[in-house]
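User: Structure with N-carbamoyl-L-aspartate, tokens only please.
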Amino acid sequence: MTNLPSIADLGADGIEEMMRLTDKFVEVSGRAIPKVPALRGKTVVSLFYEDSTRTRLSFETAAKRLSADTMTFSVSASSVNKGESLRDTVQTIAAMGIDAVVVRHKSSGVPWRVAEWLGACVINGGDGWHEHPTQALLDCYTITRRRGTLSGLRIAIVGDVKHSRVARSDVLAFTALGADVVLVAPRTLLPPSLEGWPVTVADRIDDVIGSVDVIYLLRLQRERMTEALIPTLREYRNRFGLTASRVQRLAPDVLVMHPGPMNRGVEIDAEAAEDSRSVITAQVANGVAVRMAVLYRLLGSGADLVGARPEEALAGA
Ligand code: NCD
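Assistant:
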């Protein structure tokens, strides 16, 4: 693996391998000093052309816990505002000597373009509506830690599938690992064609609520909507929201998930987000360990952490 533009590049075996590696970094993250020298001397850049809280901080925390140096590129304070192109920006950053770039951009396919221009590793931190592979990895990891496996689980992905890179990567990853996925959305918020998607579709959250092992709510991405795709937020919530009253009807061992940021009171009520079956905070915590595993797999020498005892791994940190 030299880049991570799509979850499809990993396949089921690759996802399983990354989850096994993540276990080691969960252990590192639980130490009193959650830091190892594995990537000392490496530089990881976050190149974010779209807003982000979780993904950017999570990658930067992961890089720091591996002792890499980090650089943050923030579009609002850069020469992009003077008209500099993506290619010139990437080449400028590359000239400083870097080892990996995490790129987020509103256009699908940008990570592949950046990989053509760069000698460094490129990780997709979200490209338009297309893919978000590390979110899929952390979601698979979160489910597997709680339920032991994804195989045979019934997972509902609810809401704005059309604009969601999370949904696209999650469908690929969940089904690769043997889960059954049902999409629950208004027709206007589904992709124009679901040909090739290994999923079924339901029209109302009430049709699936009692029978799923995982209920995954998506944010209503109003910034990507160019036309009115839902009548009103109230109607959307009535048909598709995980409301306080619906929470009562979920199975006792269901997992409630959301990638964040949440629109509370729209796709998810506070009572659902804070229910004991919600793993939304665990998703964020696991995100750091997953990204440590990805950076380590791409940039590590392979000898400096895995298998090393904590005191060896920490030596010189
Ligand atoms: C998502 C994203 O930006 O793709 N958030 C995330 O990375 N955790 C989902 C969203 O914005 O709705």
